[in-house]
Amino acid sequence: MRVIVTGGAGFIGSNLIRLLLQQSDICILNIDKLIFQGCYHTIREFDTFPQSRYSFSQTDICEYALLNHLFNDFKPDAVLHLAAESHVDRSIDDPESFIQTNIFGTYNLLKISRNYWKRLDENGKKAFRFHHISTDEVFGSLEKNDRPFRESTPYAPNSPYSASKASADHLVRAWHHTYGLPVTLSNCSNNYGPCQYPDKLIPLMITKAINGEPLPVYGDGLNIRDWLYVEDHACALLEILKHGRIGESYNVGGNCEKSNIEVVNMICNLLDELMPDSPNKPHKNLVTFVRDRPGHDQRYAMDTEKIRNEIGWTPKYNFSGGLRNTVTWYMKNLDWCNAVKYKQYDGKRLGLQQL
Fold it and tell me: Which of 60, 85, 89, 136 is catalytic?
C-alpha cells in the first residue's frame, strides 16, 4: 500500500508515520511545508528507512502544480490528510493563513485526489481512500453537564481555527456526496505526547517548569479538555484507514476529561518526583493565572462509541501513564525543544499558545 501523509513533520503526523513504518509495510510519501524552524529534527530519523518505504517532499498543499505532480509520480492508494494550521491563539491574530491552508489547501487536495481517482482502474477506485483528520473544536463548547460530542453533533465553531477546520470537513463531505470520492473523516480530542511543539499546554508547562519560569494558565484554569495520547490516535487512524466505512466520520478521544489546572498540577507533581533536587520544588508555586483567551471554549468531550463498536478501537494509555511518558520524554529531549521553539511568526517568538 502506498500512502501520502500530509503534515507528516507535525506532532500527530510524525507519530503516525513512525507507527506506520514500525508496524506495517506501507510505503509513505510525507508532504510537509516545514513551517516550524527546525521541525525536520522531528522526522530526521525516518531517513534511515529505504526510499521504497519512506520519502519526503517539502511542499505546500496550496501549490497545486507541485502537489499534482507528486500524486502522479507517487501513485498513492490512500491519502491521510493532517496538514493544517492548528494554533488557536495564532488564528485569532492571523486568520488569513488558516483560511488559506486549512480551506484552500484541503480543496487543492480534494481536487487533485478526485482527478487522480477518476483515472484509476476499477480495482484501484474501489481500494482508494481519502482520510481527513479534524478536531473536536468544530463542535463548539459544552457546558459541565452536557453530553459529549457525537458524530451527529451540529457544528458550532467558535475560533478562526475551528471555523477553518469545520469548513474543510464540509468540503470533504461534499466531495464524497457530490463526486463520489471515497472519503472517511475523524475528529480527535486534545492530543499530547512526545514531539509536540512547546507552545501547547502540556509541553509548554513541562519546559517552563524545568527552567523555573512562571506557568501561565488562562483564566481560572477550569476549562476542560478530553486528553488523547498521540500514539493511541495514530493507532486509531490506521484502523480507520483499514476498516472505516466510506463516507463516515469517527470521533477519536481519550475518554479522559481534565481541567487545565488539574493537568498543570499533575505535571508539577511529576516533576517534583522526577527532579528531586530541583531548586524549583514545589513546581506548583510557579503557576500564574493570566488573562483568558478571547472566546475560550469551556469544555470538550468526545463520545467514542461509534469507533469502538464499528472498528474495535479503544485507547490503550491512561492519562497518568501517558503523562509520565511525556514528561520523561521532554526532560530527555530539551535540545529538540530548543531546536523547534524559536520559529518566528510576524517577528514574534512563540509565546503562550494553548488549546
Answer: 136
Strand ranges for 59-181 from DSSP E = 78-81, 129-135
C-alpha distances (whole Å) from 42 to each of 13, 83, 182, 219 are 10, 15, 31, 32
Strands 348-349 and 129-135: unpaired
This model's pTM is above 0.85: yes
Q: What is the mean pLDDT of the chain?
A: 93
The ranges of the chain with pLDDT < 50 are 37-38, 343-355
User: Strands 190-192 and 215-218: what pairing?
Assistant: unpaired
- Residue 90: what pLDDT? 83
Instruction: Identify the active-site residue in 32, 85, 137, 257.
Output: 137
Domain residue extents for the chain: 2-193+228-256+296-317
Query: In the Cβ-directed half-sphere of 205, how many Cα atoms lie within 13 Å?
Result: 32
C-alpha grid cell for residue 236? 486509531
Answer yes or no: 137 catalytic.
Answer: yes
Catalytic site includes residue 192? no
For residue range 142-170, what is the model confidence (pLDDT) as tens digits?
999 999 999 999 999 999 999 999 999 99
The confidence score (pLDDT) of residue 341 equals: 66
**Given 161, 197, 218, 250, which residue is catalytic?**
161
CA dist 126 and 147 (Å) reads 37
If one looks up domain 2-193+228-256+296-317 in CATH, what number appears?
A: 3.40.50.720
Give the pLDDT of residue 350.
35
Closest alpha carbon to 76 in 153, 16, 131: 131
* Sheet bearing 224-229, strands edge to edge: 190-192, 224-229, 257-259
Active site residue 47: no
